[in-house]
Write a structure and sequence with these properties.
Elements (H helix, E strand, L loop, with lengths): L2 H14 L1 H4 L2 E5 L2 E5 L5 H11 L5 E9 L2 E10 L2 H9 L3 E5 L2 E6 L2 H5 L4 H5 L8 E6 L6 H11 L6 E6 L4 H8 L2 H11 L7 E9 L7 H15 L1 E6 L4 H8 L14 H7 L16 E6 L5 E5 L3 H9 L1
Parallel strand pairs: 2-8, 7-8, 10-11
Antiparallel strand pairs: 1-2, 3-4, 4-9, 5-6, 6-7, 9-10, 11-12
Helix pairs in contact: 1-3, 3-8, 4-9, 10-12, 10-13
């Protein structure tokens, strides 16, 4: 289950179908760059599945929430901790020579700049590296060379994907993080995420905003106020799961209740001033493999979602 090698196979398919997917493929210091700024649904699904190291699948479907229809997607994975945290989570700050972007995808497992990998007990060995960047700005060649060096691969074995938040591809790949946010919240609550054996999530696709800051608000709100996740967990302690699930939804945070754009503004645009427990889906269900019982908390908040999307 080599994450980077699996991701490279998917990236090869996307690059081979670049014209149909509306992406551009170029070379930076010998590395491959797949520019998804103009990509649509095909590029968005590929971006998300590459980001999960080929261990998760994305499908499009309409969602009806409290009688309102939304375009949406579902995410499924049989390896939630690895697909969502070892790969998909945007946990590496790429900050080099004046260039900044948040890095996600399996390349992080080779760079290993996060203590998270010790908790996951994941040691990645790969002949290639794939890193996904949420950005509008193309990295300069020297940054590509730096990433290859950090990942321990030749530049020719590095693939970078990029997409801005305010784009179809960006909206899709962020909505596809709905299961990831639940896994990350569990990890923040000191639950051993390796005990989660399968994950299903659904999330509406926000309308594309006219700038990346507005898109940041809409994409976060899609997850916080309407993301729904079902996790199957290895557990024999129903009381512990019942208590745990109450702490998981976004509504358990003190910063819950307003569109994320307003929360971010009130925090003076500093993520570190926002309660980290806010970042989780609206509704979460846990099913115990031991007892077969399910426990659920949270709810869809259509009022805040509509203010965010169309207010």
């Amino acid at each position: 289950m080599n994450l980077n090698d699996r991701a490279r196979e998917l990236a090869d398919r996307l690059a081979a179908d670049a014209e149909a997917a509306r992406v551009e493929v170029s070379t930076l210091a010998g590395a491959r760059l797949i520019d998804c700024r103009d990509g649509g649904f095909a590029a968005g699904r590929a971006f998300a599945e590459i980001c999960m190291g080929g261990l998760g699948e994305v499908a499009y479907a309409p969602l009806v929430l409290d009688g309102r229809w939304f375009p949406g997607l579902s995410v499924t994975t049989d390896h939630p901790a690895v697909a969502c945290l070892a790969a998909q989570y945007a946990g590496w700050k790429l900050d080099r020579d004046g260039y900044f972007a948040m890095g996600s995808g399996p390349g992080r497992a080779l760079i290993r700049a996060e203590e998270l990998y010790d908790d996951l007990d994941w040691d990645e060995q790969a002949s290639a590296a794939v890193l996904c960047l949420e950005t509008r700005d193309q990295p300069p060649p020297e940054v590509a060379a730096f990433v290859a060096e950090r990942a321990g691969v030749q530049p020719s074995d590095l693939t970078l994907l990029m997409a801005p938040t305010a784009s179809v591809t960006g909206s899709v790949q962020i909505a596809a993080r709905v299961v990831e946010t639940a896994l990350h919240k569990l990890h923040e609550l000191d639950f051993d995420v390796r005990r989660v054996v399968s994950g299903f999530g659904s999330c509406p696709l926000p309308p594309v905003a006219d700038d990346d800051m507005a898109a940041l608000g809409r994409t976060n709100d899609a997850v916080l106020y309407s993301g729904q996740v079902h996790l199957t967990v290895e557990s024999d302690d129903d009381d512990a799961l019942r208590e745990l699930v109450e702490r998981l939804p976004a509504s358990a945070s003190k910063d819950y209740g307003e569109p994320f754009g307003k929360v971010f503004k009130d925090a003076e645009y500093d993520f570190y001033k926002i309660d980290p427990l806010l970042f989780s889906p609206a509704q979460i269900r846990l099913t115990s493999l031991g007892s077969g019982r399910s426990f659920e908390a949270g709810e869809v908040n259509l009022e805040v979602l509509e203010r965010s999307f169309w207010g």
